[in-house]
Amino acid sequence: MDMMISNLQQQRQITEQLRREAAIKRINVSQAVVDIMKFINEHEQEDCLLVGFSSQKANPFREKSSCTLL
Amino acid sequence: MASDGELKVTSPVESIEALTKEADSLKAKLEEERQKLNDVALSTVADRLEVITYLNIKPRRVLKGHQAKVLCSDWSPDKRHIVSSSQDGKMIIWDAFTTNKEHAVTMPTTWVMACAYAPSGNLVACGGLDNKVTVYPLSLEEDVSTKKKTVGTHTSYMSCCTFPNSDQQILTGSGDSTCALWDVESGQLLQNFHGHAGDVMALDLAPSETGNTFVSGSCDRMVLIWDMRTGQCVQSFEGHQSDINSVKFHPSGDAVATGSDDSTCRLFDLRADKEVAIYSKESIIFGVNSVDFSVSGRLLFAGYNDYTVNVWDSLKCVRVTLLYGHENRVSCLQVSPDGTALSTGSWDYTLRVWA
């Protein structure tokens, strides 16, 4: 009996979840992809791991040079 | 249950059938809708982009001190310190510039599977096989463990944790298949997130500062998107063939990347409501433990069981390069907050910083 009720509750939750997801507004993959590419394009210049550092001095993890000017 | 056969409770059975039928038709409808909008492949659109031919990412630091597998790490907001946790039961705070250990805390458990810095940088949280999330205020004056505080307890191991937006709350994921939001001060459970049918392995917050959305990945192979305020699952993605070990929002906030034991990484777009890319190669047969994006989102870093880090072009869906160095599984990796460095942690007991 308890089992039956819990199964029912479980199935109700699953169905309610699917109802919610079915109601989601969707866009075309082509549109989604264009937006992702636009975001990347706008931020590529700040992406040091992608484009490197303007100079090695800008890299906080550069190798320490053997002598430094104090 | 009454012995009288006539007294059978038939309505719940009928309801289950009706609900199951509705669920099946909704699933079919969902699949049809998603396919209808699947008008082009990501790599096709990205075809006109230039190929990334060269990356100047080198190993810069090795952090040695753990006496067992490194399981998790997190950058401090100051972009300089790293917290790491290990199978040896220790949590270590590192100065990644100098490689010095600033704090080493022994937890009352082994397998400290999760650790995280709070947004202020003055507090860290960690936990694991103890099923708990414990916070440690960081102070240079006194022993960190004297001020420790247990915030929340799950009914199974705590696999991942993060502070959403402030030091006041912690979000955790657990082997008990739930996620939970806790109030740090009172230890009160603010919200519970039920929906996964397997151990939750990873979670990540949407990048927007006002965002109330997070993503979770689980051994049930599902990616779920949650509304933190209501506790409701708002979206779900399937596709992976095995446990999902890592989830990460794209910096745009419109997509999530995943890493799985099925040896693939994938990209799911929230607005198209479907998988839009798969990052895999025939030669890659080992599981993925951790993924993260570079700050623009163009590069996807992934740590594998074959000791390597693969760097993927997230748009062209091709591998750009491999980072070699670790001598065992790469268990965790994370791009620093300003995007200038990548930290990796491994079962070889070390962490490394690449830049």
TrEMBL record, chain A:
Name of the protein this chain belongs to: G protein gamma domain-containing protein
Keywords attached to this entry: Cell membrane, Lipoprotein, Membrane, Methylation, Prenylation, Transducer
Family statement: Belongs to the G protein gamma family.
InterPro entries: G-protein_gamma, G-protein_gamma-like_dom, GGL_sf
Membrane topology type: Lipid-anchor
The keyword Mitochondrion belongs to this UniProt entry's keyword annotation: no
Compartment(s) of residence: Cell membrane
Molecular-function GO terms, alphabetical: G-protein beta-subunit binding
Residue ranges of domain G protein gamma in the record: 4-70
Main location: membrane
Alphabetized SMART domains for the sequence: G_gamma, GGL
Organism, scientific name: Gryllus longicercus
GO biological process, one term: G protein-coupled receptor signaling pathway
Coiled coil regions in record: none
Annotated GO CC locations: heterotrimeric G-protein complex
TrEMBL record, chain B:
Each WD repeat, start to end: 63-104, 151-192, 193-236, 237-278, 288-313, 323-355
InterPro entries, per database record: G-protein_beta_1-5, WD40/YVTN_repeat-like_dom_sf, WD40_G-protein_beta-like, WD40_PAC1, WD40_repeat_CS, WD40_repeat_dom_sf, WD40_rpt
A Pfam family hit: WD40_Gbeta
One GO BP: signal transduction
Domain of life: Eukaryota
SMART domains named among the record's database cross-references: WD40
The keyword Iron is annotated on this UniProt entry: no
PROSITE patterns linked: WD_REPEATS_1 (PS00678), WD_REPEATS_2 (PS50082), WD_REPEATS_REGION (PS50294)
Coiled coil: 13-43
Keywords (A to Z) from UniProt: Coiled coil, Repeat, Transducer, WD repeat
Classification via CDD domains: WD40 (cd00200)
Similarity comment text for this entry: Belongs to the WD repeat G protein beta family.
Protein name: Guanine nucleotide-binding protein subunit beta-5
Species assigned in the record: Gryllus longicercus
Upper classification of the organism: Eukaryota, Metazoa, Ecdysozoa, Arthropoda, Hexapoda
